[in-house]
Amino acid sequence: MAGCIFAPYFPPEEPQKFANVHKIFGASNVTKLLNDLLPHQREDAVNSLAYEAEARVRDPVYGCVAAISFLQRQVHRLQKELDAANADLLRYASPSIIPMPPPPPHTPYYAHTQPSSLLPYSLPWTDHSSSHHDFHAPPGGGGGGGAPARGSAQFFMYLKQ
């Protein structure tokens, strides 16, 4: 169909892509949106709509926010794991290294924008096998209460000297 605005973005070998976008957003709304965009912006818009539509089909309440929240929690958990590993490295480092003052406390950029538990249930792709590690706080505190474990920034400073 030469005049169809959907044809370049919804190939016939991907019928579910159009079906999801149509189900979630409606064909007339997508048509209006695409007509309001410049031609070079349309492919990105369709890809975004298709991603959100697929996420909404899987999770009608949270959509892609569920995946974002999951990934933010995973980043936070991995940062804690990295801080603990760096603290362990500092504990076993050479005594000739002069300790530097601890870095200022930091808060992840998303801590103020997302509740700590956005989802009331587990995502199907969530792997909980490693999410309940009990890390020990490094000497001098810094393990809990939102403060980062001491040592991660210090360790990297030592390497640069």
How would you sum up this structure, described in words?
The chain has 2 domains: 15-58; 65-160, no CATH class. 48% of the residues lie in helices and 0% in strands. The protein has helices spanning 15-25, 27-36, 39-58, 64-91, 152-160. Helix 1 packs across helix 2 and helix 1 packs across helix 3 (39-58). Mean pLDDT is 74; it is low at 111-161. Belongs to the LOB domain-containing protein family. It holds the Pfam family LOB. Residues 1-89 form the LOB domain.
Q: What attributes does this structure have?
A:
LOB; Protein LATERAL ORGAN BOUNDARIES; 161 residues; 5 helices
Cα-based radius of gyration, to the nearest Å: 23 Å
Q: Compute the separation of the termini in Å.
A: 65 Å
Shape: elongated
Spans of at least 5 consecutive residues with low confidence: 111-161
N-to-C order of helices and strands: HHHHH
Look at the structure and give the mean pLDDT.
74
What helical percentage do the residues reach?
A: 40-55%
By DSSP, the count of extended strands is: 0
InterPro entries: LOB
Family: Belongs to the LOB domain-containing protein family.
Protein name: Protein LATERAL ORGAN BOUNDARIES
Concise overview:
This protein is mainly α and about 160 residues long.
Secondary structure: elements and pairs:
Blueprint: H1 15-25, H2 27-36, H3 39-58, H4 64-91, H5 152-160
Helix pairs in contact: 1-2, 1-3
